[in-house]
Amino acid sequence: SVNSEQPKHTFDISKLTRNEIQQLRELKRARERKFKDRTVAFYFSSVAVLFLGLAYAAVPLYRAICARTGFGGIPITDRRKFTDDKLIPVDTEKRIRISFTSEVSQILPWKFVPQQREVYVLPGETALAFYKAKNYSDKDIIGMATYSIAPGEAAQYFNKIQCFCFEEQKLAAGEEIDMPVFFFIDPDFASDPAMRNIDDIILHYTFFRAHYGDGTAVSDSKKEPEMNADEKAASLANAAILSPEVIDTRKDNSN
Amino acid sequence: MSGNPGSSLSALRPTPPERGSFPLDHDGECTKYMQEYLKCMQLVQNENAMNCRLLAKDYLRCRMDHQLMDYDEWSHLGLPEDAPGNNGKTIKDATDNK
Questions:
Q1: A250 touches chain B (CB under 8 A)
Q2: What one-character DSSP code corresponds to residue A110?
């Protein structure tokens, strides 16, 4: 009878040597490790791309949030905070007296006073007031103003549209400057029962001297002092004495 | 610190002004309008009367014209619009022409 060999369809692991089995196991392990490494790489790269996108989006998002809420001390520039309907005066019997006071730090050689003692306003009515600052020293100085409002409960209704606070203001030596404040009392003030007995609001500004690490907040004046006519004449006379006229001796020799 | 209210924590979080700080008028370009406004306030015992508000409007217009303030509509500043016949002149100019 013909003895035909049966074809090998099954993988007979028993016929492999120990070394061959070890190689197969390592091959499988390497393939699995490669797959895991690629998966981890994809995850990390996608996270990196996500955070890069967040970083780019953070700047406009932060600006939008600050414009809406004033977070971080950035002035609120979103128009929705002071819409036009908030700037319509409320028709009430009594007006609110806004008093203006001021104070200067002792180390700041400025004079800083309000130009008017008070103003009587209606809620929702915009008003303009002026302070005046004068630098008495012989140096250019940078000052910065902060404000406080009394009583404190009314501070939430005091809305400043534009003023001179929270930014550095540089006054040259001897300079005098008018500083306006443009503000209004929120119309909700009239309907708040807690504000019923408040007839006076005090706006108090304090000017401090700015301080830089390198001392550049105070600088020497760039303006030269102006001399009057007598001083000029004396100066010219001194110049004439100190600089005698040069005589050309060659003329005398030729004569 | 005198004048600082200590009774409320909300006062310790001051809100910045809506449009930041006015630029300083170093050259005194709008001093004339300010003096007229302050004189008007004295006449009405510091009540925020309409004629004084019109002078305040002249002052703010001067600041806008001299790049000391951003241009804006008067309704956004709570002030009345210009009268149609004035052609942008100030109230004082309109009064002088009459």
A1: no
A2: E
Q: For residues A81 and A69, give the distance between their C-alpha atoms in angstroms, rounded to a whole number.
A: 9
Q: In a structure prediction context, what are the per-residue pLDDT tens digits for chain A, which is 255 residues long?
A: 565 666 656 667 677 787 888 888 788 889 888 898 989 999 889 999 999 898 989 988 877 877 666 655 555 555 445 677 777 787 776 788 899 999 888 788 998 999 887 889 888 888 999 998 988 888 888 888 887 887 887 887 888 787 887 778 888 889 888 889 889 888 888 888 888 788 889 988 888 878 777 677 777 765 555 556 666 677 666 666 655 555 545 544 444
Amino acid present at A153: E
CA gap A186, A87 in Å, rounded: 8
Q: Confirm if A126 and B79 have CB atoms less than 8 A apart.
A: yes
Segments making up each domain of chain B, as ranges: 29-96
Interchain CB distance below 8 Å, A182 and B5 = no
Q: Does residue B13 sit at the A interface (CB-CB below 8 Å)?
A: no
The total number of residues shown for chain A amounts to 255
